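Is zinc ion placement plausible here? Inputs below.
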Amino acid sequence: MICLKQSYHLGQAFSTRAYAEKSLPAGYIAKETRGGGWVGVKKAIPVTFKPFLELNQDSINSFLSDAERMDLEPDEPKEIMPDYSGLDIICPGCARSYHDTTASYDLDKYANSAMLQLKDKYRGYGWEEIIPDHDSGYGILVCPDCGAALAPSGKLRIA
Ligand SMILES: [Zn+2]
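Reply from A.M.:
I modeled the complex. Tokens:
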């Protein structure tokens, strides 16, 4: 390359286009200068190579499953698990609230004893503590005051 540069005196105008094109090394094209002569300028990178990364990405994508393709997408903001803890649970019998929800509360699932806890202010009442158990049925959940089922339909009533 060094010897080409030296022998072609790049930048110095050729007198005609034909002569320029004939004399230029590979990768250069003849371009007319304002002064009327012709100079060799480096050929623009061919379009097929320019967006190389994009093309490459496309060809990779065509071999990937949808799930794998999703992995290549920029990270979406992660869905934050909503925190439904601390909500008042209303007794359908006496309409009072002696329990609130724990972090295990899930409004889409049938209630279990891990979803609720006796509120702090009722801890000293001598009422039976609810033992957290994800496998417990909702039938054991009763109001400590009136005895009504807290989740007669399976779902707790939230204020
Ligand atoms: Zn009640």
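Short version: Helices lie at 2-8, 17-23, 52-61, 66-72.
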